[in-house]
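## retry 2 of 3
previous attempt timed out at serialization; input unchanged, resubmitting
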Amino acid sequence: MYFLLISSLQFLLIVFICIFQCNRAKLLVAAGVRSLDGLPDELLLSVCQYCHERDLCRLAQVSKRLNRISSDKTLWKRLFTAVFEMPVAFDLDLRSSKSAMSLPPSPTVSSRISPTDSDCSVRSLSSPLAGPVVDWKSQFRTMHGSYHVSPPISDFSRAHRHQLPRQYFERLSDALASCPVTSVLDDAMERQMIVVHPGTYCEHVIVDRPVVIVGAGNVTLTSLTGRVVEFRPQARNSVLAHVTVKGGLPLDSSDVPPYYCIDISSSCCPIVQDCTVISSADGGACLYVHGSGACPVVEDCRVCDSESVGIYVDDGATGLYFNNDIFNNKLAGVWIRNLAAPIFRRNKVHHGRDVGFFVFDRGQGLLEANTVSENRIAGVEVKNEANPIVLKNNICNGKTGGVYIHDSGQTRGVALAVRKKRSGYSSPCVVRTVVF
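## retry succeeded, writing output
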């Protein structure tokens, strides 16, 4: 009650200051308007524009009318865009990797919201016109309870940050170190959310606890070490969404080990969603998944312009990879080897400077409903006792061949070539696959 009384007195003070500073308000006083009930909604809404978020929440507890006015979407939209300096709002529907593995893939599980004055509708990544009206107050509440990583900030945001319960950081690594280590939960919204504001961050990010890392705009993560983003086993079902991960090495980096932009190790099941992954290093891969129990969900990502491999799944790893665009990689778009058994579904693997899918050294897995086109060598190559299932794919316009199955790798086929050797064999199951 004490806070409500103080807030009400402050509100009345602002009202009467505005009353005696505008001609319209003076007319209202002359007409006998002496209380808040006699003031029009427009004037009260103008007064509320000078309030901070806590003041608006306290005013909402005074009366039903003030509750309605203080919840106006224009007030919270202004606070959201000014305090957090975010060009877009997010409506995330992140699911766990277990449910994604058991269900057929959907077109998208996330959407972005444009905060322009003329458009307050949800803009989906797959459909630009669908969605409900934005609840800016709910968006502010979500961001209010998050950690924030941002470059130098404006004076307006700095004036508001003393009211926020969470700190702001200039490095993503510092924000991760401040996150509590919680138990593994299937519900992504129970994890600590880290909002990364627009900018370029040069650091080696180690994710060693369950978190949700979301880029808010044009966010680029880069590093000159062997990794950019590394998921440790403690990260389990963490989320990385809406960022660009760009890797590159200095010219004198001959002694540096293979470079991986995103490294997902054993017993780790993160969700990588709507990310662009690029690597200019000669060795390694854009996305490296390895070890028993590594089971990520990679969706709606662009893996491109690599000077090595696009996606490399190795050493018994699995995972679900769907709706990704994999193109212009120097080596294969996808490597699968050493008993790895991933599921690749509805991906586009095209314009590669080598083979599309390369499954070798006892690699397994399912390649389903992918479009593989315009690769310099074959669309799918299988060798050295690999045994994948190739189902309902569209493999076309390969510069050398469509599906190439062999052991020694000394002879290339035109459309479908099979070679055997004494010590082992490759026996892929190719079903309803269009090759031309």
